Amino acid sequence: MDTERKLKQWQQAELIDHATAERILAFEKHQPVPKKLPLLLLIGLIFFALAVFSFIAANWQSIPDIAKVLLMLTLMWLFYTVAYFSGKKNFGYPLLFRVIGLAMFGASLLTAAQTFHFPLANSVLPWAMYIATLAHYFYWRHLVYSLVGFYFGGYVLVSFLPNIGWVEWGIFIAITFGWFYFSKNFAPTAFSWILLFASGFMLWGLVEYDSVLWPIWTLFALVLLLLVIPSDKQQMIRPLYLLTAGLLLVVYLAVRGQTFISIIDESHWAEAIALAIVAGGVLLLSYFKFRSLMWIAVPGVIGLLLFDETAIGLAIVAELSALAYLMIAQRQNEKLGLGFVYFIVVQFVIYIIYAWERLDMSLFFLIGAILLFLLSGAAWWINRRKEGVKS
Question: Where does the sequence pass through the membrane (predicted)?
């Protein structure tokens, strides 16, 4: 009835003719009508499910061990079956039933582990849930499975601690890289990229070398991913690299400003120099392959700026990089939101951590005002030059 009413209104407004309206109406009449569960039936099913689960919980201890596992498996297949017919017959919410079925799969594993006294630490439980969730994602391609997969991927990483082996770490990298490579949307691609970045922190437990620079090494290692993905995907994940590079610089700046003892000693000079050399390679690679990501090479100098003699250089690099990013982004007509937030955060860290106890309040605000005026003047000058060129 709503379709007919709309079509009549469109005919009266002379938006469509009578023949077009008849064809639209005939097409809509042949479409399957969604079937909705009656409200009372839905409420009854909910109460029935609660009654069943309450009965099971009340008699859980008296149920035989093997029956507990079989019961969880039966519930899992029951929900998957309901989800199948829900999608086939167009009633209910297939996604909800599949998610509950996935939860029942996890409950089956947990029940088996508790029943037969399998260890939960460093077990296959998080692995199984991670792989099963990714299988759900690649089959149905829904955001919910990306969120659940990200959770269990992080759980797998945490389960590595305190013991971690190269085999487990390599398998996790392979699975997560497959998720990253074959994902098509931003959310799953971002989640898998974050897990790959987080896996670099596991090197603290794998390698017998104490270093505070593992996050930067990990970021540079992830640059290799840009060589195996198409250009459209490079543009999609570009903010991840820029955000991570800026966040690393801010975090190291804040930690160095709050720490009164050296967080890196003289024995790490070789590593700091090596990191700077690799940063140069990343800069050259970015220049020729993906020029908009050249900024990710900036954290490579952090290693050289963590020593007591060079600590002030870290604040200078953070300040200059923030200003340069804003000016270049303004000149190239790019979005300034990300750069402006980064600039404000850098100012906050430098003023609050580095200069709060060294400057009086008037000088504090004076320097901040001068910096903002300089930035505004530079932006005005660039815009004036552009208008001059256009005219």
Answer: 39-60, 66-83, 95-118, 138-158, 165-182, 188-207, 212-230, 236-255, 267-290, 336-356, 362-382
